[in-house]
Amino acid sequence: MDNNILFDYLLQLGDNSLVLGHRLSEWCGHGPILEVDMALTNIALDLLGQTRNYFQYAAEVEGKGRTEDDIAMLRDVRDFKNVLLVEQPNEDFAYTITRQFFFDAYHFYFLKELSTSKDEQLSAIAQKSLKEVTYHLKYSSDWVIRLGDGTEKSHHKIQNAVDDLWMYIGELCEESETDKKMSSIGVGVDLNKIRFMVNEKINEVLKESTVRIPETPSKQTGGKNGKHTEHLGFILSELQWMQRTYPNMKW
Q: Cβ neighbours of residue 29 under 8 Å, at least 6 residues apart?
């Protein structure tokens, strides 16, 4: 196996969890109710734990003496491989839960497939993460249904969030060259295989929530190739500020 391709693949996976985890961490202390505040924070911690597993393995594969912290804190925007969906702003709770649901619907089926990877370490990470993401998907699905089939105001908010974020979901199962190479050798996930299941889950929950499914195509892509929205730069300026301001600092 080409270690450069495996390294790039690990960045794709770790960057998704890192950026989304950071977005959720922004809710800490600001949740609409205490239960939601704690739930979102715990999901963020789960994602951060997944990030560490991917980046620790990436540092080992790269073999250049870098650590998980170096990979997270010392890369620029163009070096990040996350999908565009996870970097979108929180806006309000409806936006946050919709973004989370779209990603969870993908993440759950992705990890189910990754757990059978020929790479034992990737398989182990996926099996551990799947237990967490099973809860994430249930949590976000329940909230989408609750808001969509709730009051007129909550329905309006979740519908707006779905309409605005719909353009980003196609990228979740869009294959990069790295995805193709990794799936061809049985290490990565064949995204074409899970696309139907992901779309079916999204449509199932949206129908139950009484939310109208957008007819517009989902064509916003580029994140896996380092092309991002303006939002990622602001995320990294906050996430990486301490390390870049005080290089090599120790607690």
A: 37
